[in-house]
């Protein structure tokens, strides 16, 4: 009897194998690319922040592994082409990807380059912005073909403002850098102060003179310079730094004239991700990345991972590899994706910014997560971060 059952099962297996073999032999290939445009500017102040060669790409590799875990059961196969460019070669590299028929492109670039590449792609590709934070990209310069996975300056500023107001640190001494991205962030802090009931008692400009920042005597110069630079400020609870260019903010803690905490670009920093994050299943996620990359995950890695997970989630939910179907679903109110942040992440229809919680972090720990519980919203508390529908300047 046992022998007959085995023969019968073998026969059934033989009957089913051709369909399975055909499925395995012909998976639907879902192609994407990660285009990283490297900036040859100044190195970071701290050598601990030097970018690794696989920055962003390591996040992409983890995302492809995650997508394939589900995809192999759905008859789907995922691919992410890794491309490194300079500001001079980015256009040519984008042309190659478009000519190759890649219709989902994760862009890691600054604001002007991201905007230029989105215009270049037009209706040929969906751009997933995983780095640029400028509010103009979600406002007057928004593009329908772009989804912003990277949080905006407005989201970062609002996340920090909610915590500072909760702490009743409502009087801010705002110090901004002299670069365009610094000005954009400073404006976001000004809006956040007004929005949540804080007050900027003074806004002061730190001019970048182009001097050396990482010399042996640098800390000695800063120890003398920063107290003098920050003296005679009106009474304030906290120093808020707007220094996206990474010129001065890291030197502020413990060097200000008045003994005050520092937040913004140094001290208490709003981030999309942090290596110390452990809640909501993040420990296992961090471990998998560290095993793959042999280093901690940085914000750009997380944002690149999330951008490609957006694609994977859309493919799973629609059971399709058709780029038009995937694009429409990503931009629909039915889309959401998990991001190890305790809430479903969705895309705003008015500016294509991804809603997401923002982590407030120090060097070693996560201090809090915004939105804070005290700040309510009629639709989603995540829309208390960044430009809400009535505030947007975006018009597709």
Automatic annotation (TrEMBL):
Coiled coil: none annotated. GO terms for biological process: amino acid transport. Residues 1-24 form the signal peptide. Belongs to the leucine-binding protein family. This is Branched-chain amino acid ABC transporter substrate-binding protein. It holds the Pfam family Peripla_BP_6. InterPro entries: ABC_transptr_sub-bd_PQQ (IPR022478), BCAA_transport (IPR051010), Leu-bd (IPR028081), Peripla_BP_I (IPR028082). It comes from the Bacteria. Keywords: Amino-acid transport, Signal, Transport. Residues 58-207 form the Leucine-binding protein domain.
């Amino acid at each position: 009897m046992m022998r007959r059952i085995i023969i019968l099962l073998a026969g059934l297996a033989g009957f089913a194998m051709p369909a399975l073999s055909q499925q395995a032999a012909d998976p639907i290939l879902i192609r994407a690319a990660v285009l990283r445009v490297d900036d040859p500017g100044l190195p970071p102040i701290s050598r601990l922040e030097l970018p690794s060669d696989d920055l962003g790409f390591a996040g992409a590799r983890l995302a492809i592994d995650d997508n394939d875990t589900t995809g192999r059961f759905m008859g789907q196969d995922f691919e992410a082409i890794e491309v490194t460019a300079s500001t001079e070669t980015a256009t040519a590299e984008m042309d190659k990807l478009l000519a190759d028929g890649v219709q989902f492109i994760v862009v890691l670039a600054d604001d002007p380059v991201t905007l230029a590449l989105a215009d270049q792609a037009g209706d040929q590709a969906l751009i997933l912005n995983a780095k640029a934070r400028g509010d103009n990209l979600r406002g007057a310069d928004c593009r329908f073909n772009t989804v912003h996975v990277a949080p905006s300056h407005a989201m970062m500023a609002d996340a920090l403002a909610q915590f500072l107001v909760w702490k009743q640190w409502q009087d801010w001494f705002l110090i901004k850098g002299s670069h365009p991205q610094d000005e954009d962030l400073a404006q976001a802090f000004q809006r956040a102060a007004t929005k949540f009931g804080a007050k900027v008692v003074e806004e002061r400009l730190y001019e970048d003179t182009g001097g050396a920042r990482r010399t042996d005597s640098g800390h000695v110069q800063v120890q003398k310079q920063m107290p003098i630079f920050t003296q005679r400020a009106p009474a304030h609870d906290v120093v808020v730094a707007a220094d996206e260019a990474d010129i001065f903010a890291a030197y502020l803690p413990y060097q200000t004239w008045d003994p005050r905490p520092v937040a913004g670009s140094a001290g208490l920093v709003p981030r999309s991700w942090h290596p110390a994050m452990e809640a909501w299943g993040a420990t296992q996620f961090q471990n998998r990345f560290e095993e793959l990359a042999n280093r901690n995950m940085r914000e750009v890695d997380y944002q690149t991972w999330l951008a490609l997970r957006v694609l994977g989630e859309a493919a799973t939910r629609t059971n399709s590899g058709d780029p038009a179907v995937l694009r429409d679903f990503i931009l629909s109110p039915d889309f959401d994706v998990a991001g190890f942040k305790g809430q479903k992440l969705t895309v705003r229809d008015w500016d294509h910014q991804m809603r997401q919680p923002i982590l407030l972090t120090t060097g070693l720990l996560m201090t809090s997560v915004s939105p804070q519980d005290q700040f309510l919203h009629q639709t989603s508390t995540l829309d208390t971060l960044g430009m809400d529908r009535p505030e947007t300047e975006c018009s597709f």
